[in-house]
Specification:
single chain; alpha+beta; Hypothetical Cytosolic Protein, Chain: A; 60s Ribosomal Protein L30, Chain: A; four-stranded mixed sheet; 10 strands; 37% helix; disordered C terminus
């Protein structure tokens, strides 16, 4: 009989590059497609047997360069060009889409004053600030107590979620799509080369 603890335990898979057993939210799924080509499937929707790699740039490069996809597929497998960048872009676009949906449902707002108000009223669970925003401006807002911080999306990427050119500050309320956005943002962080170290904050800790 399956215990209640096991019933709600996150589904796990083994990374072919690191050997670690991790939850699906920490991994990227790949599948062997037509013509023996490996395709990334971050939404876990493509048909076929999944091949799992940790959402980390070095892990995917190791899997690609070490022919680990071929070993896992038990046949010759060819990787797409710029595989890591393709995975990064897919996940970033997924986050932008989810933020946009969250905005439409009233669970996400943008703009300094609105975000500040949500933080003051303890509505915000997640603070999102653009990686290329002003350090001084961003330091005026702090991560919610017990909440999360996301700081590795560009102002243009955040702008897409709101139909604007550039956005620096966003906030997510609890519930809705927030958990999925946080999980995907964590995966993106492992894949993205952060050029602006202001994307990381002293109050972020290990969130």
């Amino acid at each position: 009989m399956i215990s209640s603890a096991d019933k709600f335990k996150p589904s796990e898979r083994r990374c072919i590059a690191t050997g670690q057993v991790l939850s699906k939210s920490e991994l990227v799924r790949f599948v062997l497609g037509p013509n023996s080509v490996i395709y990334p499937d971050p939404e876990n929707k493509l048909p076929g047997r999944g091949i799992w790699v940790k959402a980390d740039r070095s892990a995917i490069v190791k899997a690609e360069k070490g022919q680990l996809f071929s070993q896992a597929a038990k046949q010759s497998a060819e990787c797409l060009e710029n595989l890591v960048e393709q995975v990064e872009n897919l996940i970033a676009n997924r986050i932008i889409k989810l933020i946009g949906l969250s905005r439409k449902s009233g669970q996400c707002i943008c703009g300094y004053e609105k975000v500040k108000d949500w933080l003051k009223k303890d509505i915000a669970e997640v603070l999102i600030q653009s990686s290329d925003g002003s350090t001084r401006e961003k330091s005026r807002l702090r991560t919610p107590d017990g909440g999360k911080f996301i700081g590795w999306l560009s102002s243009k990427e955040l702008g897409k979620a709101f139909g604007r050119e550039n956005i620096t500050h966003c906030a997510l309320a609890s519930g809705g799509l927030t958990k999925r956005i946080v999980e995907d943002a964590k995966r993106l962080k492992g894949l993205r080369i952060i050029k602006d170290q202001n994307s990381f904050r002293k109050d972020e800790t290990s969130k």
